Amino acid sequence: MSTLQKIALGYFVVLLGAASLNYIPGLTDDEGLAFGIFELDLFDDALHVASALWALAAALISHRASKIFLILFGALYLGDGVFGFFTGYGYLDFGIFTNGSAGMSFSLLRFLANLPHLLLGGFAVWAGLKLDRY
To answer: How big is the CA angle at 75 (ends 109 and 3), to the nearest 5 degrees?
Structure first.
């Protein structure tokens, strides 16, 4: 198994973990915010499960499939994180379409709410482009 396949397998585990956050007692507050920062709904859960299955399929299929997954997934999630940072909602879970823009904010909570997608997306793109030979 190549390094990219192992990374894609890691994304499978992380994304399933993200999909399960709402269902682990104590991780959400009284307002339904995970870690007191962001709300995950059925669309978010579906997005994370679909992404996890995509990651698993890519990891099991081939090195090339894992590279394609990492680059495409990374670009989509990184873009969603940047978009969410500036508007308050992302596009992958249709949040921007169902809620409209919350306007620009440079608050710590806005940054923390989008940090998972920024990190996951940024690392995936980097890994897909830079670790191709391993």
So the answer is: 105
AA identity, residue 44:
D
DSSP, res 24: S
Number of domain units in the chain: 1
The DSSP H or E segment spanning 39 is strand 38-39
Return the half-sphere exposure (C-beta side, CA atoms, 13 A cut-off) of residue 91.
9
Dihedral angle of Cα 121, 7, 67, 47, to the nearest 10 degrees: -50
Interval 61-102: pLDDT, tens: 999 999 999 999 999 999 999 988 888 878 887 777 777 777
Domain that holds residue 114: 3-130
Kindly write down the DSSP assignment for every residue of 71-115, as one continuous string: HHHHHHHHHHHHHHHHHSS-STTSHHHHH--------HHHHHHHH
pTM for the model stands at 0.86
- CA angle, 49 as apex, 110 and 63 as ends, to 5°? 105
